[in-house]
Design brief:
The complex is a heterodimer of chains A (384) and B (331).
Chain A lengths: L2 H26 L2 H7 E8 L6 H20 L7 E8 L4 H13 L3 E5 L4 H14 L3 E3 L14 E3 L4 H16 L3 E7 L2 H17 L2 E8 L7 H10 L3 E5 L2 H13 L6 E3 L6 H7 L6 E5 L8 H14 L5 H22 L5 H9 L3 E3 L2 E3 L12 E6 L2 E4 L2
Parallel strand pairs in A: 1-2, 1-3, 3-4, 4-5, 6-7, 6-8, 8-9, 9-10
Antiparallel strand pairs in A: 10-13, 11-12, 13-14
Chain B lengths: L1 H6 L1 H22 L8 H26 L7 H17 L5 H25 L3 H20 L9 E2 L5 H6 L8 H22 L2 H11 L1 H6 L4 H27 L1 E2 L6 H14 L4 H25 L6 H15 L14
Antiparallel strand pairs in B: 1-2
Helix pairs in contact in B: 2-8, 3-8, 3-11, 3-12, 3-13, 4-5, 4-6, 4-11, 5-11, 9-11, 12-13
Classes of the chains: A alpha/beta (384), B mainly alpha (331).
Chain lengths: 384, 331
């Protein structure tokens, strides 16, 4: 047996031992003592890879809320600790993370992931383990009512499209609209719902064109839009592609209002689209310029801590932290917090946060009103 | 390498089964409140076994006939989507859908293997990579495959539901099925190696022109390798889909294909033990490193760095793979 082979087999053995020790040993042994001292919340999220911005924002917002809660004495004197698992945007790894945390008896609730596919892979596992599971993003309609342990504080595709059309109709009274949408579940959900709502209101959809997330040049699509001359251009995008579309549309002389979903709301959108952002509107859950003093306080604290404006993920995550705290307190009032008592408390949530009042319907979805947001002087503001 | 000889055949199979079954069922036997091996460990074990099947199936193409394929995930994903759709849309029971997954993959593998008859080396890499990407984009865009989010809520085989009462965590039945399939495939591969077909594969691998001059039907054997490879990859894909009860186009991605090829190359092409080793190593290492990262609080995941390092070191030190044959490495 060669020397290298021996070294490699040693590595394999060590790897095995680490896995056994890491997941078998640690949660089993100290869990008993930890359960008294700390309440454990676990997060599965893309913290590296293409979707890392979402996951990292989610973590920052939640961490900030938990820090505040812990400073104020925690839950009946118990501190809350947060464990994280990086799924790198891969559903298999998200499933592994969900399973890892479901196994740890000290984990009372799981949060994440920010991607629909990953959440879809996690829900069967959290459902089987009966762990309350909540997300701030993952908008696919397939998640509605999938498990009675699943709670969604996220925007939902099938609601957003209709609202985009409703609000455009109120504000601009258009006869013709065109749509550009991202070719993924999010974009396709928007396609269905916008078309349905436009039909209902008697607005003509001149065209609905799709593109890939990796596209950088939208001139072909926009040329067609220009020829059709709709009064409002709807975009079903995230901030990267949405920013580029807006920028290129303005360069091509398309000056009509552009209306988008919640995904456009990010400081990155302003960076990418530059001056082109004036006269664009989108649905929002949270705007840092919202004069509401509660919102202002959050923005100030977030900026102090992380040196940047919070995005929607961070704001929702912050509210999620307090929704969890509320549920934990309610559950703790009835004795030691269990996954079951936590679930019941979550289902009965009614918490007024910075993004609105959080309540869940019988499918675990948050039914909520939205803000109509626009950009003025390079800042997001609530549209009048 | 005496120990490798010792591990050949039934002994190796017995040790692997003992390990896998031991891990799976010791908790059920002991019946203690704390798991000795928590479900997470079994999850990793099961994923390792499924990838062992995938690596063994890729070994027909990338090992025995020595062609590099970067489109193996296409067959893997095709099997997953086939059995997902059959059970969900047509309400087939799991078992026929499971077999159909293999058959559909094999049938599709036939035309995809056709380019391999004409091109090889880097050209085949491009062709197979392209085919894989085509499948991914088809799955991303079709309504019936659920688009980018995929299809959730696949059925768990009904036989397993009753079987699950034996196991403690609901994963044991899948582990047993994956183990049986992996061992069967290992046995099958060993028999092929020593058969006329295996000799033909070897002849084609070493020198295609010489092989055809000796009367080996190169076209037939190359297609045979592709079809066998696709069939077993389809079965593995179906198993993974039903285990996760979820299938998405991510399963068809080129990253997945590259991972499978890496398993074969790192473990050792043409070595059955090597395929198992490669699959286990590349499934367990990322999880292990995550543990290390969490334990010592590293700000980044060391896996990606190490992954590249492993590949470079392997190519420098042991290009034939950890358990690859100790002959001169040939392309």
């Amino acid at each position: 047996m060669s020397k290298q082979l021996r070294i490699l087999s040693l590595v394999l053995v060590v790897a095995f031992l680490v896995v056994v020790a890491g997941c078998g040993g640690s949660p089993a042994a100290p869990a008993g003592q930890q359960a008294k001292a700390k309440i454990t919340i676990a997060m599965v999220n893309p913290l590296t890879g293409d979707a890392a911005t979402y996951g990292v924002s989610h973590r920052k917002g939640l961490e900030m809320a938990l820090e505040e809660i812990n400073k104020a004495g925690g839950i009946k004197g118990q501190q809350i600790e947060l464990l994280t698992h990086d799924d790198a945007g891969d559903p298999k790894q998200a499933a592994a993370g969900a399973q890892k945390f479901a196994d740890m008896k000290s984990v009372v609730t799981i949060v994440g992931s920010c991607l629909s596919s990953n959440t879809l892979a996690m829900v069967p596992i959290t459902d089987k383990a009966k762990v309350p599971h909540s997300v701030v993003s993952s908008s696919t309609h397939k998640l509605s009512g999938m498990s009675k342990y699943f709670f969604r504080m996220a925007v939902q595709d099938d609601k957003v499209g209709g609202l985009m059309v409703d609000l455009s109709a109120q504000k601009f009274k258009p006869k013709k609209m065109a749509l550009l949408y991202l070719n993924n579940d999010y974009g396709k959900g928007l396609l269905t719902s916008t078309q349905a709502q436009a039909k209902k209101l008697g607005i003509e959809m001149t065209s609905a064109q799709t593109y890939l997330a990796t596209d950088k040049d939208y001139s072909a699509l926009l040329t067609k839009v220009k020829a059709e001359a709709p009064e409002v251009l709807l975009v079903g995008s995230t901030y990267t592609d949405g920013g580029l579309i807006v920028k290129q549309a303005r360069e091509m002389g398309l000056n009509m209002p552009i209306v988008g979903p919640t995904g456009l709301y990010s400081p990155k959108y302003l960076e990418i689209a530059g001056k082109a952002v004036e006269n664009t509107y989108f649905l929002g859950v949270f705007v840092p310029t919202n004069p509401d003093p509660k919102v202002q306080e959050f923005v100030k604290k977030y900026k102090e801590k992380y040196g940047m404006d919070p995005d929607t993920f961070a704001a929702l995550a912050y509210d999620q932290g307090y929704v969890l705290k509320d549920a934990l307190e309610k559950a703790a009032a009835k004795g030691a917090v269990t996954r079951e008592s936590m679930r019941d408390a979550m289902a009965a949530s009614s918490f007024k946060g910075i993004t609105g009042t959080v309540t869940f319907d019988d499918k675990g979805d948050w039914v909520r009103p939205y803000l109509f947001v626009t950009v003025k002087d390079g800042k997001f503001v609530v549209a009048q | 390498m005496a120990w490798r000889q010792w591990l050949q055949g039934w002994r190796g199979a017995f040790l692997l089964s003992a390990f896998v079954l031991g891990v799976s069922f010791i908790d059920s036997v002991l019946n203690r409140p704390e798991y000795l091996f928590p479900p997470y460990f079994k999850h990793v074990l099961l994923i390792s076994l499924i990838y062992s099947i995938a690596a063994l199936s890729l070994n027909f193409v990338s090992g025995y006939i020595g062609q590099t394929s970067l489109g193996h995930a296409a067959f893997f994903g095709l099997g997953a989507f086939t059995s997902a759709l059959l059970t969900q849309e047509l309400h087939w029971p799991f078992w026929p859908a499971f077999l159909a997954a293999g058959v559909v993959s094999a049938v599709v593998g036939l035309p995809l293997g056709a380019p391999a008859v004409r091109v090889r080396g880097p050209f085949l890499v491009v062709v197979t990579y392209g085919c894989g990407e085509v499948f991914k984009y088809i799955a991303l865009n079709l309504e019936v495959t659920g688009g980018p989010a995929g299809l959730p809520g696949l059925v768990t085989p009904s036989l397993f539901v009753s079987f699950n009462d034996i196991g403690a965590t609901g994963k044991e039945a899948f582990i047993v099925l994956a183990l049986v399939l992996a061992l069967f495939l290992a046995f099958f591969s060993r028999r092929i190696e020593n058969s006329r077909v295996g000799q033909a594969f070897a002849a084609i691998r070493e020198d295609e022109i010489a092989a055809s001059a000796m009367g080996v039907n190169v076209t037939y054997y190359k297609l045979l390798a592709f079809v066998l490879s696709a069939f077993f990859a389809g079965l593995a894909g179906s198993l993974l889909a039903h285990y996760l009860s979820f299938v998405s186009p991510d399963m068809l991605s080129s990253a997945e294909s590259i991972m499978m090829l890496t398993m074969v190359v790192v473990g050792g092409a043409r070595s059955i033990h090597g395929c198992f080793l490669g699959a286990f190593l590349l499934t367990i290492l990322p999880e292990a490193l995550r543990m290390i990262k969490d334990t010592i609080g590293l700000p980044f995941d060391p896996w990606l760095v190490l992954f590249g390092l492993i590949l470079i070191l392997m190519m420098r030190v042991r290009p034939q793979g950890i358990l690859g044959a100790d002959t001169v490495f040939r392309r």
